[in-house]
Structure formats: structure tokens, C-alpha cells
Amino acid sequence: MSGELVLISGGSGFVAAHCIPRLLEAGYSGTEPGYALSFAFADLTSDEGWSTAVRGCDYVLHVASPFPAAARDGALRVLRAARDAGVQRVVLTSSFAAMSYGHTSSGRTFTGQDWTDVDGPWVSAYAKSKTLAERAAWDFMDRAAMTDPAARGERFLAVGGTTLWIADIARVLRDRLGARVPTREAPDLLVHLASRADPALRGHVHELGEVKRASAEKARRVLGWQPRSNEELIADTAESLLRLGLVGNAA
């Protein structure tokens, strides 16, 4: 582990901001020997800079994704550069949106075997971009998480707990943080009526009452991964946003 180099795309993003300190704590490096961390400049919409960014790296964590059009091409640029540089393994983060849209999900539990039907009804540009990018990555690679041999060529869902409605999240914020947030729910009929005048609502009315369930059993079994509770995650996320000044104090 000592001296092994890791490239993380989208270093300023939410996921990368959690990966970087954990890797540094574990003894990995983010640049040439002698430094703990440095930055490479490369654009996911251009080939320029990627060969330099991955040079000498042992691993690549591709956690950035332009939205929506360049997601597929960006993923392939990273993979080609990693292959040409002899990188040992690439980890690519996708989204639940890449498996749960375009088909009926009522009463269904999604797993790593499921894919969003990009030609199905009500598939957003975001869901389509995530699906096409991950599909392209699987087609490109010989099915490449980072050092665990059991993870090679596998697809894992990082989900925990049960499905929550927005009102459930609001109640957690109220109970855990004392936040003043609304917990009332608008009747479905009212949402349908409002959607006639609001295009933003119109794209979501088809999901009213729809429950999307997913299973992380494979990640638990193969990687020994144990997710935190929904309540803990919601409270910690809210506290982080408040601490960073990204939202106002609702208490």
C-alpha cells in the first residue's frame, strides 16, 4: 500500500471529498513520491490531459460525471487512459438511476442485475446519461471496489435501510436536529392538477405512490460492507450542510 498512487476524478465533488481523506489515512498517495496530494487537470469532455493524469497510478477512482451528454464519453476516456497506463484497477461509481427507471417497479427489489430501460417511459436525461455511461464502461472493460479480489468484475449497490418518502426525511430532521421543516404531504390529486401548469411537476407525476426498493445483500456478503442507518445519514448530511454554510439554519 505504501507509495501506491490513486487518481480520483472530480476531486472537488461530494464523493471524492470523502474518498480522498480515507485513502490518505490508509497510506495511499495522490501524486508522485514525496507528496501526499496534488492535482492534475483533465477535462472529461476532451482527451487532453488524461495520459498525464494517470501516469504512474496504481488505481483510479472515477467518481466524476459530466451531465448529461458527456457522461459516456468521459467514462471511456478515463478507462482508455487507465488501460494504456497499466493501472491495476478502476472503480467507477454510477447511480441507482442506472437501474430503476423505464419499467414498472412496484413491489420489486432492484439488484445489480437490473438496468434502466433508456427507451422506456419517463426516463430523465440524468438517468439515461448514468445508464449509458455505465453500460459503455462494462462493454469496454473485462469487468474491472479497489483492492479486494472478490470485487473484480462485480457491480455493487451501496444502499441501506428502507425506502423513505420526503415526509419521512423531514420527520428525521425534526426529531434528530429540532429543525422546523414541513412534514405534510400534498394529495396526489392536487399534484396532478398542479402539474398541468408546472412542467417541472409534470415529469414526476408518474412516480406518485411508486416505491423503488433495492438490495445491498451482495455488497454485505462479498465485501463485508455494513451501511449506516438512514436516520444517521440524514442527520449527518444536514449537519454537514449547516456546518459548511450551504443551507440556512432551520432550527
Describe this structure in words.
This protein is mainly alpha-helical and 251 residues long. The chain has a domain at 6-159: NAD(P)-binding Rossmann-like Domain (Rossmann fold, 3-Layer(aba) Sandwich). The protein has helices at 14-25, 50-54, 71-85, 125-140, 166-177, 188-195, 199-202, 217-223, 230-243; strands at residues 6-9, 59-62, 89-92, 109-110, 213-214. β2 (59-62), α3 and β3 form a beta-alpha-beta unit. α5 (166-177) crosses α9 (230-243).
In short:
The protein has 251 residues and is mainly alpha-helical.
Q: What are the key terms here?
A:
mainly alpha; single chain; three-stranded parallel beta sheet; Rossmann fold; 5 strands
Secondary structure: elements and pairs:
Layout: E1 6-9, H1 14-25, H2 50-54, E2 59-62, H3 71-85, E3 89-92, E4 109-110, H4 125-140, H5 166-177, H6 188-195, H7 199-202, E5 213-214, H8 217-223, H9 230-243
Helix pairs in contact: 3-4, 5-9
